[in-house]
């Protein structure tokens, strides 16, 4: 079994739909794990849903702000306490045109290397057929197939104990995304692009609907 039955761990997955946290949580629950997601802070303000995710111990992420450190500290504490924490390394639904994993943030690597726990790479495919990225209405019929596949823990042994420099964190993050992509290639029966999609270099907004004509959010003015 790829998902550890107990003990703290980071589970890192690709992100293809707004509904995949629910299908992914169901997958992990089937493996006996109650999970802690790093979820964007705005979700915690939604009536009913916000109360539910707070009650289940989910971790708010204040994207593109200095408050992001709070999520990191909470996640480290959770895995050190034996919890299973889910991280989407891409930080948002992929902007890659064919929904392959794109470049990622270093959060999953930082949590795992700081807490000394494993990172389990998981690929999921099919949630986007139920609810396409940023679509408002799901397509429930005909019945859709959702496939979730976990891989072996990412090998980070040579990086453990090192100072968490940008280079070390980037190397760890690349390995995590490579492992997720490998599992997704197996599910899809296809090869991912040789070069990983980078939204910054492509001029695509980092959060929110990339098709929204509104002005791209700026780190400088602190918008979320």
Automatic annotation (TrEMBL):
GO BP annotation list: phosphatidic acid biosynthetic process
Presence of keyword Transferase: yes
Any one Pfam family match given in the protein's UniProt record, by short name: Acyltransferase
Keyword Transferase in annotation: yes
Span list, region Disordered: 188-224
SUPFAM superfamilies, per database record: Glycerol-3-phosphate (1)-acyltransferase
A GO term for molecular function: 1-acylglycerol-3-phosphate O-acyltransferase activity
All copies of domain Phospholipid/glycerol acyltransferase, residue ranges: 9-127
UniProt feature, compositional bias: Basic and acidic residues: 188-205
Keywords linked to the UniProt accession: Acyltransferase, Transferase
GO CC annotation, single: plasma membrane
PANTHER family linked to this entry: 1-ACYL-SN-GLYCEROL-3-PHOSPHATE ACYLTRANSFERASE (PTHR10434), POSSIBLE ACYLTRANSFERASE (PTHR10434:SF55)
The protein's name in its UniProt record: 1-acyl-sn-glycerol-3-phosphate acyltransferase
Protein species of origin: Nocardioides iriomotensis
């Amino acid at each position: 079994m790829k998902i550890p039955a107990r003990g703290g761990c980071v589970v890192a997955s690709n992100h293809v739909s707004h509904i995949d946290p629910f299908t992914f949580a169901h997958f992990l629950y089937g493996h006996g794990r109650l999970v802690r997601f790093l979820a964007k802070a705005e979700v915690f303000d939604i009536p009913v849903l916000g109360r539910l995710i707070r009650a289940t111990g989910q971790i708010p992420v204040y994207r593109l702000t200095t408050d992001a450190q709070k999520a990191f500290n909470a996640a480290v504490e959770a895995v050190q306490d034996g919890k299973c924490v889910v991280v989407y390394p891409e930080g948002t639904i992929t902007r890659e045109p064919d929904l392959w994993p794109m470049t990622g943030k270093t959060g999953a690597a930082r949590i795992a290397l700081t807490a000394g726990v494993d990172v389990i790479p998981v690929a999921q495919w099919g949630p986007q057929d139920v609810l396409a990225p940023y679509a408002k209405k799901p397509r429930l019929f005909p019945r859709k197939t959702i496939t979730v596949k976990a891989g072996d823990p990412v090998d980070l042994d040579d990086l453990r104990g090192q100072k968490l420099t940008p280079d070390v964190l980037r190397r760890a993050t690349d390995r995590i995304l490579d492992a997720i992509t490998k599992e997704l290639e197996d599910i899809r029966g296809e090869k991912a692009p040789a070069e990983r999609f980078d939204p910054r270099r492509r001029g695509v907004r980092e959060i929110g609907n990339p098709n929204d004509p509104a002005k791209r959010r700026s780190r400088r003015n602190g918008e979320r």
